[in-house]
Amino acid sequence: MVPHLSFIFFFLIPIIVASWFAGALFCFFITILAILSWTISDYLIAHGNIDVFSFLFNSTVHALILAYVTYLLRYIRRLLIRESQLAREDSLTKIPNRRSFYENGEVAFSTGNRQQLPITIIFIDVDNFKSINDVYGHKIGDKLLFEAAQVMNENIRKNDVIGRLGGDEFCLILLSADREHALMYAINLRNKLNERMLKHKWQTTFSMGIVTYAVTPPDFLRAIEDSR
Ligand SMILES: Nc1nc2c(ncn2[C@@H]2O[C@H](COP(=O)(O)OP(=O)(O)OP(=O)(O)O)[C@@H](O)[C@H]2O)c(=O)[nH]1
To answer: Whole-angstrom Cα distance, residue 137 to residue 142?
Structure first.
């Protein structure tokens, strides 16, 4: 009896690897290649002795299985990426949440310490935010926090770190920023925040606490606690 081995894993493995690690176009290409290879190998194994209907039927089923596996894996991958983004994002302001801020802060501090760079931590607090909620309502309070976070996010560089620590408290870490640079930056940021508030006719201001280290200290958690 001639052994008939199923080749499904042979075709599935490249699809699984591509679906998980490669871009959509490459993945599409690999899936088409796997479908064609499976169909051709079926044809060759039959030595041309095929029943056209069952050959077409089987090839279609194989194509559907491979396409569905690709779709399913891409979908699961997208979901996982989205989930991990959501776990790191503050749902209201869409900037990094406290947990993500602390993770990114560790990285910035370790870079700054390794390269002996200055570093600045800026704490930002919305003044009398409680009364904003009381006067305008929570919905406007939420919108205000969102707008303020957007202004901050629009005004940081790639290596800087931003986060909402909670409530109306935000924090920025400016890598390589010495005292003079940090002060200029903070004044400019505060003007931009005030402009945005004025645009919405929200009567509020922002308080900022600025701490600069001439050389980044090694312990981020300690630095952030000492700075508060
Ligand atoms: N709308 C809205 N309000 C929030 C949110 N998180 C916290 N708050 C409110 O923010 C307010 C913060 O109050 P406080 O910490 O006293 O801050 P404050 O009124 O600005 O006082 P100071 O910081 O001393 O100026 C509280 O009333 C919270 O209920 C949120 O996500 N949305």
So the answer is: 9
How many separate domains does the chain show? 2
Atom number in ligand 1 closest to CA 138: 1
CATH number of the domain encompassing residue 195? 3.30.70.270
pTM, rounded to two decimals:
0.77
Residues within 6 Å of ligand 1 by CB: 92, 125-130, 133, 138, 141-142, 145, 167-168
- State the distance from the centre of ligand 1 to the C-alpha of 101, rounded, in angstroms: 20
- Do 118 and 175 lie in one domain? The reply is yes
Asked if 168 is an active-site residue, the reply is: yes
ipTM: 0.91
Q: For residue range 160-208, what is the model confidence (pLDDT) as tens digits?
A: 999 999 999 999 999 999 999 999 999 999 999 999 999 999 989 999 9
Could you write out the DSSP letters of every residue in 197-219?
A: HHHTT----EEEEEEEESS--S-
- Asked if the structure places residue 2 within a domain, the reply is no
Instruction: Give the domain range for residue 13.
Output: 8-87
